[in-house]
Amino acid sequence: MPTQHDPTTAPLTSTSPQRGLSASTFGVLWRDRRALAGVTGRVVGLGGLAGLVLTVVVFLVAWPLFTRMRNQRVWYHYLEDPYLHDSTDLVLVALGALPLFLLLLGIGSAAIQDACSRGDSPARLRPVLAVYVLRGLVVWPLPLIVAVVADRFTGYHLDTPLPLERGTWPYILVKCSPLAALFVAVLLRLALTLAPAAAADGLGARAALRRSWSLTWTRVGAARVVVLAVPLVVLTAGLLRLVTQVALPLRPLVRGLLEDATGNFFAAYYAGILAPVIVGILVTAAVTVPLTCTAFAALYDRLSPPRSSPAIG
Description:
Blueprint: H1 17-31, H2 33-61, H3 63-78, H4 88-118, H5 125-139, H6 141-154, H7 169-191, H8 195-200, H9 205-216, H10 219-246, H11 250-262, H12 265-303
């Protein structure tokens, strides 16, 4: 059984810690490249297939909404009036399905994190997945709830008067509240960044969250996490944007095929919007998730104090 770490933060042991961390990360990626490539390929392939099935199920659930939009469009066209559809109900359906997509993303990330962290140790997929679930429950409900409530009070809805008058202080505060909630969520997310690596190292889910919090909320830990997280976020966002743009020709192709098959313009329209985004997410995950998991596992090892050696004699 692995010995638990002391929750205190270890001092820096290198004059150039970031260079040493980068060398450790890419060294592990190169050493285990075949195993990691195999795990990543399986996870992304199965995750993409499961995500496609889940997307089809969501579209089937939302089909009455698409049908209503189509009928209203035909009616407004008959009256020779412009038709602007209200997507509020579709947003609610998407929010209802969001936890399932996040769970799917968490399962894939946990599998890759486990492969990147464990080395020759036994697999610990279950506690790593539990960490992703608990961390998601801690971090993301607040900004989602605040965004939904703010949209109800300040968002644009057809034929619905706003509860708050535009330009007033209550309107401005409610309008800006999602940004404040998102800022809090980002801070929490950074504080719990090392939890999956801690779970893969042998801790339980709650203990891993506490360990990440104790290692991150120090001057050394916070700086190292931020310095590592910022370029990884930039890389992920940039790659996602690039791949999505490259995949944009899928949009009219998917839209045309689905509209010809179903006769429903709105279902085809939203499917066309999602197609390049899904491709972008899968390609970006295949490239950046192994790098991110390995980098934070290496950072966790550097920030954690050395394991205590058993007494001799």
